[in-house]
Amino acid sequence: MSAISFDPTSGVWLLSTARTSYALWTDPTGAPCHLAWGPRLTLAAAGQLVPLPAGEVSSFEGSSPAGEELPVDGGARYGAPSLRVRFADGTRAFEWAHLGHRISEPAPGTTELALEFRDRHYPLAVTLHYRVHDDTDVIERWTALRNTGRQPIALLRADSAAWTLPLRDDYRISHVTGQWSAESLLHREPVPHGETVLTSRRGITSHHANPWLMLDAGDATEDRGEVWSAALAWSGSWHLIVQRTPDGRTSFTGGAGQDGAELPLGPGEEYTTPRFAALYTDGGFGAASRGWHGYVRGHVLPYPDETRPVLFNSWEATGFDVDEAGQQELAVRAAELGVELYVVDDGWFGGRRDDTAGLGDWTPAAERFPRGLGPLVDEVHRLGMRFGLWVEPEMVNPDSDLYRAHPDWVLHFPHRTRTELRNQLVLNFAREDVAEWAYGWLTRLVADNGIDFLKWDMNRAFSEAGWPARKDGQDVLWPRYVHNLYGVMDRLRADHPGLRIEACSGGGGRVDLGILSRTDQAWPSDNTDAADRVSIQHGFGQIYPARVMAAWVTDVPNQLTGRSVPLRYRFHVAMAGVLAVGGDLARWTPEELARGAELVAEYKRVRHIVQHGTQHRLRGPVDDGPTAVQYTTADGREIFVLVWQRAPRHGTPRPALRLAGLDPAARYRDAASGAVHHASVLTGYGITPELPAGDWSSTSLHLIRVDDVAADGTGPL
């Protein structure tokens, strides 16, 4: 059976993935409606889900808020709409007229469905898009809206899609909240009746929430139970609205934008929403995460098969005190440690001596780099490392040559204070001249200096988000800003195929599927305290894989929390993602440098497992007990386990960690001790790792499958 099929008799479309099905139809009014999302169905079975004609509905109830593929504002609908429009004569209601559908295969292993509609009277065409891939259960959806008339139309809300869950006795929502330096803190709580809104109105994805959610019936665990989840591929303001209705149903809608902003759609213009992808599994939260990790690696990242290098970043070592001689000294120490990518952070350009000046003037500071960046780049390359640079292209300090020349380039309203956060203002990337300026200096910087890597930062949210030069500027700038940001990155990468980019926004302020489709890794948080990072990384990993999660080892006492934890613990926490070092290596003792080099070498031996393997959360950061994460190669031949424990209480038993996903007939040798373990014992009974005594203890376990073992468990090793 095709991945997408249609039954003209029942009028049902069925989308099939490897393990799940999604079914929909158009009801007698012409509206696209949901039928099923869950375990596999045949097309004939899905046809049995078409509802019988509804009886008389109470005049106080109207249509159910749940059940339409894209709920509109119109008729007797009183739930959260996914589509709200205002036509030229002031009419707001939308009425569906179905035109037809198209099923296509745009690439091998990929199938798309396009359902075409129009308003019954007004010149607005709406196409609902669905995409499935052979190698994932993730379903991608988006919507295209086109003005086919001669008068403008205002899009008051244009979500990407709405998703409906099957009827269950109860529902629970999983999502993350936080703030700067405390991002991605996981919450699981009952879904209340009414509407629950997750959103960012900041112009960026935000530190405070992330555009994904998971829903279950309140009984899912890490290893079992039905979970429905979704993630939005958008790097600006966004909203997700979960509805739990009085008749017991639950659905959610999501898209770009926030309340109060409308998007003008001129004659002949088309607006395409960002992708809103979703996944069903009956394997619990762990299977949902692994499904998302595989999807990100297979269908989001530009170069998913690459193994990310060990990175050193100069920020916590030097702050703004950056010069050629000091950076060369640090580079020598970094190379001796085993670092493969050396990144110079803030302070290398213009009049940048602190955070009050210089942003926007992107030329090397003459007194600090009298010969330009070339000699430093050459030395880093000579040492066998790639060279990276911190940039913040979307920002400007009022104390800069750029701002003095172009004060109109920032987001602002007439006669209103230009609010400064971190002593900076936001450049209006929605303007073509601003985007072209940014692209121009970035591509020259990379080409002229042999830059291999950019840490692309963005250190404040929008305020006074206006564009006085355009009458509709305060509305069009929100989506256009993001599209132009994407365009600059896309052009830059096309110019320089070897360039790699890290997404950063004051830490984890811009991490989403949209930005990850044009970057190579992300900075989850400016908080580098290893103790705090365990919880931050736990929430981050619910959707995003270790392959994109940059994690630093920095000095103690930690600059943010003042906490001191052992070097071994700091390394083990950072090994759970893309390992990096951010300490002041000039102050490390010979013993610390030697131990650090050993741990870097250990990571290099296992990073293919961490970055490309499947992840199982063996025990989350839920109490004083250990937290443990397992990574396994696709062929099951290698396993790497990391274990961290904060402050064990005397007399508290240590739980055995039961490994996951192993062939019970296999045996594994511990790469460190040589001990051999039966997989049936590791998965059925568990292993109790030996943790060093004291607070902030940690350990790692690298297991390699033993070949040529007899079926009875005996035989040569």
TrEMBL record:
Pfam families: Glyco_hydro_36C, Glyco_hydro_36N, Melibiase. It catalyses: Hydrolysis of terminal, non-reducing alpha-D-galactose residues in alpha-D-galactosides, including galactose oligosaccharides, galactomannans and galactolipids. Residues 627-703 form the Glycosyl hydrolase family 36 C-terminal domain. Transmembrane segments: none annotated. The keyword Hydrolase applies. It comes from the Bacteria. GO terms for molecular function: alpha-galactosidase activity. SUPFAM superfamilies: (Trans)glycosidases. PROSITE patterns: ALPHA_GALACTOSIDASE. Its EC number is 3.2.1.22. Residues 30-262 form the Glycosyl hydrolase family 36 N-terminal domain. Keywords: Glycosidase, Hydrolase. InterPro entries: Aldolase_TIM, Alpga-gal_N_sf, Alpha-glycosidase_related, GH, Glyco_hydro_27/36_CS, Glyco_hydro_36, Glyco_hydro_36_C, Glyco_hydro_36_N. The keyword Hydrolase applies. PANTHER family: ALPHA-GALACTOSIDASE C-RELATED, GLYCOSIDASE FAMILY 31. Belongs to the glycosyl hydrolase. This is Alpha-galactosidase. It comes from Streptomyces gibsoniae. The lineage of its organism: Bacteria, Bacillati, Actinomycetota, Actinomycetes, Kitasatosporales.
